[in-house]
Design brief:
The chain is of the alpha/beta class and 550 residues long. The chain has helices spanning 35-39, 42-53, 89-98, 112-118, 163-167, 188-194, 211-225, 240-249, 260-272, 281-291, 306-318, 322-327, 335-348, 356-367, 369-376, 392-402, 427-430, 432-435, 452-462, 496-507, 530-537, and strands at residues 12-16, 30-33, 59-62, 101-103, 123-124, 132-133, 139-143, 159-162, 201-204, 233-237, 257-259, 277-278, 351-352, 381-384, 408-412, 440-441, 446-447, 474-475.
């Protein structure tokens, strides 16, 4: 038998149980797939994934008919009973067995990617020099490993086509030397993240460290320098404002970008063959009211429906049992009885609410394996912003779409988790490798936004967080070193608004700052009710973001 391609490609081989091991793989580890392995495939999948990601040749011994793990798995249990790390082993096992391995079961050494490329017009080549010959005479290898730059001298003079390109029905060659300087003046820590070579990555990005720039430059690098197909790369923003900012910064090359909820709606549209209608809060309130047991008369100044809306959100985003959520509160009696009926009514009307865009999308991907595999081809490489704000349902949606390669470039800061009430958890960043095996770590360490004094105070306060990724945060080279940039004002519980007026009056002294340069921030909207009243009474001009519904 001929040699198994360049060592840099790290190809393995599949044999039948007890079959002869081809000579090039005599020293490679043997991984056997039998009925016991299929009963508990987790350890085997982990070993295969590690070998594939690190391009370590293996011998896969098949003691079962491969059709047993070729069919997409169907999971019909309630989504709320799952976790962010829920696996679909068959998706990964089928991919990892065949994607970068020769098939030697018949005694002939077959590279299936070469056969697939031949259907697109290439010719199968002498395997000693390459996999295929293109119409112009170029000899190329079709890479079945993780997408990464491979030096030209490691390919024996042939060129490279990645299997994702063939999968899309194309035979475009990868750049001969794709890892180019970004030419955009990035700092060393930013450039290391942008030019990450292969596989998943975690970018810890403290405030002011340039995370949006890293995201946009990563997109430009993948689509421009490396010329990855636009249909395989998707940026996921947390909300519409972030998506629009991302699109504004990347308008020159227009990558695919969606919000989390838009991503869920896309999945549901593909599942149903049409886009579901979206219920607003008023319609959701009417639906909950129609399902509530007893029709209790509400007490004055209370909102009897609001707690149910919150609890429905908690069940779906935190992946918690309706019964557990009901038991944890004293204002949602009957929640476990109405949960399924609420979603059934949405389905009957061909609609979803805001949270069901995520929950329903996860459900659709789990029950329709063919849909899952088809959409995974459009999500081979995901770039996800604000990873710290993802709930378990968000993370599960991302992982289901990112399988089998789990190539997710996650950007976030575990010190900024603000959605803990629906189970957003710093652990998703702290234990990122458990969700996305073999991830590279790229910390951003410089705050370019704030004065030295502010950066120092923030660093001190954040050091008290017990669950966090250890990190360094320093001031940028142009940061203002002057003292007085940070002032802490203590006040009594009823004096907040008057204290705000005092601080603002000091800033607005003639010759200091203009009113439009001052912002009053609060943790939640309800805390912004008193300061505008106090500022207006003090004659301070303002523009409030509060709407009448607050």
């Amino acid at each position: 038998m001929t040699a198994p391609g360049p060592a840099a490609l790290g190809r393995g081989v599949v044999i039948t149980a007890g079959g002869a091991i081809p000579a090039p793989w005599m020293a490679a580890p043997i991984l056997t797939i039998d009925t016991d392995a299929l009963t508990d495939p987790g350890p085997l999948v982990d070993r295969l994934h590690r070998a594939w990601a690190q391009r370590q040749p293996v011998v896969v011994e098949l003691a079962v008919d491969p059709i047993e793990f070729r069919r997409p798995e169907v999971i019909e249990q309630p989504v709320w009973s799952l976790s962010a790390g829920t696996e679909v082993p068959s998706d990964r096992l089928h991919f990892l067995v065949w994607n970068n391995c020769y098939d030697a079961r018949s005694g002939e050494l077959i590279w299936w990617w070469a056969r697939k490329a031949a259907r697109l017009g290439a010719q199968v080549a002498d395997s000693a020099v390459g996999d295929i010959v293109l119409a112009d005479g170029t000899v190329a290898w079709v890479d079945g490993g993780p997408r990464s730059p491979i030096p030209a001298d490691a390919l024996g003079g042939a060129r490279l086509i990645h299997h994702e390109t063939v999968e899309l029905g194309d035979l475009t060659l990868a750049p001969a030397d794709p890892v180019l300087p970004t030419g955009s003046g990035l700092a060393p820590d930013q450039e290391a993240a942008v030019t990450h070579l292969s596989g998943p990555a975690r970018v810890i990005a403290p405030a002011g460290s340039g995370k949006t720039r890293v995201l946009t430059e990563r997109l430009r690098h993948l689509l421009g320098d490396r010329r990855w197909e636009r249909d395989t790369v998707l940026a996921v923003a947390y909300n519409k404002e972030a998506q629009l900012e991302l699109e504004r910064r990347t308008s020159r090359f227009a990558p695919r970008a969606r919000t989390l909820n838009s991503l869920g709606l896309w999945v549901l549209s593909e599942y149903h063959g049409r886009q579901p209608a979206l219920f607003d809060e008023r319609e959701c309130r009417r639906l909950v009211d129609s399902l509530l047991p007893g029709r209790r008369r509400p007490r004055a100044n209370t909102d009897p429906i609001g707690p149910y809306l919150e609890a429905l959100s908690t069940v779906r985003l935190s992946l918690s049992s309706p019964a557990e959520v009901e038991a944890s509160r004293d204002d949602v009696d009957g929640l476990s009885d109405i949960f399924d009926r609420y979603r059934d009514h949405l389905a009957q009307r061909g609609a979803v609410d805001f949270d069901d865009q995520i929950y329903g999308a996860v459900e659709a991907l789990l029950v329709d394996g063919d849909l899952r595999r088809r959409l995974q081809q459009r999500c081979r490489h995901l770039l996800v912003d604000e990873f710290q704000d993802l709930t378990p349902a968000h993370v599960l949606l991302i992982r289901l779409l990112a399988m089998p390669g789990l190539d997710v470039f996650g950007v976030g800061d575990d010190d900024q988790v603000i959605y803990g009430h629906v189970a957003a958890d710093p652990a998703f960043l702290i234990d990122y490798d458990a969700l996305f095996p073999g991830a590279g770590h790229h910390p951003l360490t410089v705050n370019y936004r704030c004065p030295v004094e502010v950066v120092g105070a923030a660093r001190h306060l954040l050091s008290y967080n017990h669950r966090r990724v250890p990190k360094e945060i320093s001031s940028g080279p142009k940061a203002d070193p002057a003292t007085g940039a940070l002032r802490v004002v203590e006040h009594g519980s009823d004096e907040a608004a008057r204290s705000v007026v005092g601080v603002v009056d000091d800033w607005l002294e003639p010759g200091s700052v203009e009113p439009h340069q001052v912002a009053v921030l609060a943790r939640v909207n309800s805390l912004l009710l008193a300061p505008p009243v106090a500022l207006v009474e003090a004659g301070v001009p303002l523009r409030s973001v509060l709407s009448p519904d607050v």
